[in-house]
Amino acid sequence: MLLPPHGPALMTLPTLREQYSHHALAIRNVCEDTLKARLISLDRLFDYFGPPTTAAELFDSINHATLTAFLLDYAARYGPGSRQNMHSAARGFLRFAYEEQFMAHDLSALVPTVRRRAMAELPKALPDACISALEESIDRSCPAGRRDAAIVCLLSTYGVRGAQVRRLCLEHIDWHNQRIHFPPVKRGRPIEQHLTDKAGNRLADYITNGRPPSPLPEVFLTLTTAVPLSDSSHLSKVIHRRLDRAGLIVPKGVSHGTHGLRHAFAVRMTGQGPFKDVVDMLGYRDPSSTM
């Protein structure tokens, strides 16, 4: 693919990622969580094409044939959800590259939309017995165990997203009125729930005996550097690691990360009350997302 004369001959991939991120946020009005997911997909695309050392090398290697080969290879290795994310990220990135004149032609139209019929493939949930075994397997005599036990308890009890647990602040826990407030993410609704005895005890044990001394407002911090869990995949890695340590066999098709617990919560709530209540508890604005 020939570049315009002022193409990114010496631009590094980190610089390209930064410029694309600014474009997505400022021009396309993409939310930060969506951008993080797209950057994960773009890193996989970069790896497929080398990875190249400069932006010019990347764009030189992308053409009709290589783009099609990449999409076919990705489809053979990933499920429809991941393919949907990748196709969306690739379209946006290729459109950005053309608009910024990094590429001479707009190849975004070559990336088809991955359509998933509503209710065609319901998410599979982590079984309640597996969740109980996971909680019992965590040794709460050490700071890591106290933190991870509190994280698992919140995800299981309230069905919130991992990002909501990562962004939970000390001020969001109302000990006196036994309430807990989770901030909204992905343009959804905030979630406020009763602070159960179990969740309160797990949080109090971690904050008192496991949380590193820090003036930061976030509840959950890294164990060594005492900084917030900013990586979007951090909590899923915690769940995955704990499942492996416990020797638990997760049913095929069930998420090994935070979504497995969220799906389990949704399944548990189904039929237990008005559908609107389930929508509110999951923090959605659009009921079709809950469906």
Helix and strand topology:
Elements: H1 13-26, H2 32-48, H3 55-61, H4 64-77, H5 80-99, H6 128-137, H7 143-158, H8 162-166, E1 173-174, E2 179-182, E3 191-194, H9 197-209, H10 234-246, H11 258-269, H12 275-282, H13 287-290
Antiparallel strand pairs: 1-2, 2-3
Helix pairs in contact: 2-5, 7-9, 7-11
Describe what you observe in this structure.
By secondary structure, the protein is mainly α. The chain has helices at 13-26, 32-48, 55-61, 64-77, 80-99, 128-137, 143-158, 162-166, 197-209, 234-246, 258-269, 275-282, 287-290, and strands at 173-174, 179-182, 191-194. It has a 3-stranded antiparallel beta sheet. Residues 1-6 have low confidence and may be disordered.
Strands, count? 3
Instruction: Please report which band the strand proportion falls in: under 5%, 5-15%, 15-25%, 25-35%, 35-45% or over 45%.
Output: under 5%
The gross shape turns out to be elongated
Count of helical stretches: 13
Low-confidence stretches: 1-6
Mean pLDDT: 85
> What does the radius of gyration come to?
22 Å
Which structural class should the secondary elements be placed in? mainly alpha
Strand order of the largest sheet: 1-2-3
List the secondary-structure elements in sequence, H or E: HHHHHHHHEEEHHHHH
Oligomer: single chain
Question: Could you give a short description of this structure?
Answer:
This protein has 291 residues and is mainly α.
Quick tags:
291 residues, mainly alpha, 3-stranded antiparallel sheet, 3 strands, disordered N terminus
